[in-house]
Amino acid sequence: MIYFVLVMILIFTEVYNVWRCVLLIEFKEVTKVFQGLNGSFNALDNVGLSVKKNEIFGLIGESGAGKSTLMRFINALEVPTRGHVIVDGIDVSTLGSRKLRVFQKDIGMIFQQFNLLNNKTVEENIRLPLELHKYEKPLSVEEVLSFVGLEDKRYAYPGQLSGGQKQRVGIARALITRPKILLCDEPTSALDERTTEEIIRVLKRAHQTFDVTIVIVTHELNVIKQLCDRAAVLEDGRIIDVISIENNAGETDGPVKSYYERVLEVLKDE
Ligand SMILES: Nc1ncnc2c1ncn2[C@@H]1O[C@H](COP(=O)(O)OP(=O)(O)OP(=O)(O)O)[C@@H](O)[C@H]1O
After folding, report:
1. Is the dihedral of CA 43, 232, 57, 21 positive or negative?
2. CA–centroid distance for 238 within its chain
3. Hey, which CATH number is domain 24-106+212-270, 3.20.20.100, 3.40.50.920, 3.40.50.300, 3.10.150.10?
4. E-assigned strand segments in 75-155
5. Atom 4 in ligand 1: residue holding the nearest Cα
6. Which among 51, 150, 155, 224 could disulfide-bond with 25, CB atoms 3.0 to 4.6 Å apart, if both were Cys?
7. pLDDT digits (tens, 9 = 90+) for 64-103
């Protein structure tokens, strides 16, 4: 009997350890209280959620639901009032400032408004993370520029680029450090439909090529459908569901449709 119990404990421990290795990001009973003009309020309320290694995970919900705050916990741009955020086995809130900077090196981020420096060239923008920290095996500027298809824009300034090109530069800047996690905050919200599709393709390729786990905040359900493996639905600071997305290959696998083809598709009544 004792032998049986020991074997069961061993099996349980092994299964538990394998499961822990699969998880990359864990939110444990996370609450965020902000002080507003009318007193304090819970932006996030007792959130529990896990993101697996190599997943593309979406955070969706209406404006003010708490999506960005939840994502900003992952790279400690925001700190929970209560609860724990565990990333790759590390409780982020326990890190001192030096260890936190090292930890943040593994996490890249892209933004809705691209956050490029207008007085620097594309190349200088892409190199910025390498000037802030030392990385063991960064990619080269040539590699990331070729990856996002902007070799010819190396010496251009952001003001000379379209929105989609600016976002590609943002992606190149995030990828040059070979991050384990890529956080995307409304990456396509400032872009039209066709450019959105192009950015989705680049993100999918980045996921496949660099084994990067992606967490994306967006209000665009089509982006979630085409890109994500799973998505959490937030409402008033609570997670009301986590949905597995059946087929995320979808439309982005065929050729990119021209703007005119899309106009006909939507406006022509046949
Ligand atoms: N620094 C802050 N101080 C006070 N309140 C804040 C702060 N940051 C966010 N909030 C509030 O917390 C709530 C959640 O904000 P959050 O930005 O996470 O929502 P969201 O779902 O990302 O919304 P959106 O889609 O509009 O960006 C909102 O009511 C917001 O006003």
Report:
1. positive
2. 19
3. 3.40.50.300
4. 82-87, 90-91, 107-111
5. 34
6. 51
7. 999 999 999 999 999 999 999 999 999 998 899 999 999 9
Please identify, by atom number, the ligand 1 atom nearest to the C-alpha of residue 61.
21
β-sheet with 213-217: strand ranges across = 107-111, 181-185, 213-217, 56-61, 230-235, 238-244
pLDDT, mean over the chain: 89
The residue extents of the domains of the chain are 24-106+212-270
User: Best substitution site from 31, 67, 221 to test ligand 1's pocket, by max atoms within 8 Å of Cβ?
Assistant: 67
The amino acid at residue 138 is: P
- pLDDT tens-place string over residues 183-236: 999 999 989 988 999 999 999 999 999 999 999 999 888 999 999 999 999 999
For residue 65 and ligand 1, the question of a CB distance below 6 A is answered with yes
Measuring from atom 17 of ligand 1, which residue has the nearest CA? 68
| 0.80 surpassed by pTM | yes
